[in-house]
Amino acid sequence: MAAIPQLSQPSPTQISKMTTYIKKVAESPGLTSVPSSYAFTPSPNDQAVSDEDPEDSIPIIDFSLLTSGTPDQRSQVIQGLGQACKDWGFFKLINHGVPESLTEAMIEGIREFFNLTDEEKREFEGKNFLDPITCGTSVNTSMEKVFYWRDYLKVFVHPEFHFPNKPAGFRFVRWLCCNCCSELSLEYCKRARGVAWELLKAISESLGLEPFYIEKVMNLDKGLQMFYANFYPPCPQPELAMGLPPHSDHGILSLVTHNGIGGFQLQHNGMWVNVNAIPNSFLVNVADQLEILSNGRYKSILHQAVVNKKVTRISLVMTNGPSLNKIVNPAPELVNNGIDQPAYHGITYKEYLQHRQSNSLPGKGNLDRIRI
């Protein structure tokens, strides 16, 4: 498989500032090549890409055994969960209890949102990174010299729930399950949050901490849960464009699902690995705040999104973080043992987000700056 291009920047003369959403660019009549403002130059130092090896594949965690298994089964799953966080920073979550029909309805609703006109989507563009609803393109067009082949919607859904009121009826569409009706987007976010919180109990135990440790010290009852929807339309030259650059997630734990189209890659043992999704599963990853709290025992891992020539990929990401004013430090229980020393400076989650938004640091540069 061809190597993924290094994200080296073109010269300023190649840049033309574009505020148009990538969906409109991709649908331009007669488009046969990537516009220069979206084209990355391949580098000879590109990392190799491999398909997921069945003999060395991303761990699979059965969520039902955490919630309804025997004590021995739960203990084994917690042990496996800790090993997955340590060795991969990712795992696939099956039997998580979020109905497939609910996820499919969310994906179709998001597809309708991105089908809105550019003018309608601009109503949700926002002016500040803390605006509860933000719609945009690329990653940070105010700082980038070359743009990514991606449109996005970002919404704060906890502790206060927000969601766009367009397309008409999406937020308030009624989703029927088990003879009870509920708001589609709210129901999806609540269920995903419940899954994340249950996982964090088990992750606490895998670190030798009490089950509710992370929930308490991160103030999850007031924690910032963010919903992201990513839209990657077909690209005429996918080898020159990038959906999302290599990055780690800023929160504690992220849950990812998509519309069945591949394009998610993670870094493992110095290589990019194409992730093969299991139907109706979540791909779960350790994020930066959990790396800090675990004092580096569990590390957030670089991942990226690549694009393709034929079909649109839609992904849904639920990022679960601490409360904005929470100062995140390595857990004292993991450093006050006379052996380990704190590996990170404490920082509030809000400050962490602000610095990430205002600086174009590659990879895990935002986390690197607080390492001791």
Task: Describe it.
With 372 residues, the chain is of the alpha+beta class. It has one domain (55-368): B-lactam Antibiotic, Isopenicillin N Synthase, Chain (Jelly Rolls). The protein has 11 helices and 17 strands. It has an 8-stranded mixed beta sheet with strand order 2-3-13-10-15-8-5-4. The protein has a 5-stranded mixed beta sheet with strand order 1-12-11-14-9, with no helix packed on it. A hairpin with a 2-residue loop joins strand 11 and strand 12. The longest helix is centred in the middle third of the chain and has 23 residues, at 184-206. The protein is globular. It starts with 21 loop residues before the first helix and ends with a helix.
**Neighbour order of strands in the largest sheet:** 2-3-13-10-15-8-5-4
By CATH, the superfamily comes out as B-lactam Antibiotic, Isopenicillin N Synthase, Chain
Contiguous runs where pLDDT drops below 50 for at least 5 residues: 1-18, 177-181
What fraction strand? Answer: 15-25%
**Could you tell me the radius of gyration in angstroms?**
20 Å
Q: Bin the helical content.
A: 25-40%
Q: What is the 3D form?
A: globular
CATH class categorisation: Mainly Beta
What structural class do you assign from the helix and strand content?
A: alpha+beta
SSE topology string: HEEHHEHHEEEEHHEEEEEEHEEEHEHH
Q: If classified by CATH, what would the architecture be? A: Sandwich
Number of helices: 11
Overall residue-averaged pLDDT value? 88
| Terminal-residue CA separation | 38 Å
Query: Within the CATH hierarchy, at the fold level, what is the topology?
Result: Jelly Rolls
Number of extended strands: 17
Number of structurally distinct domains: 1
Q: Can you summarize the main beta sheet?
A: 8 strands, mixed
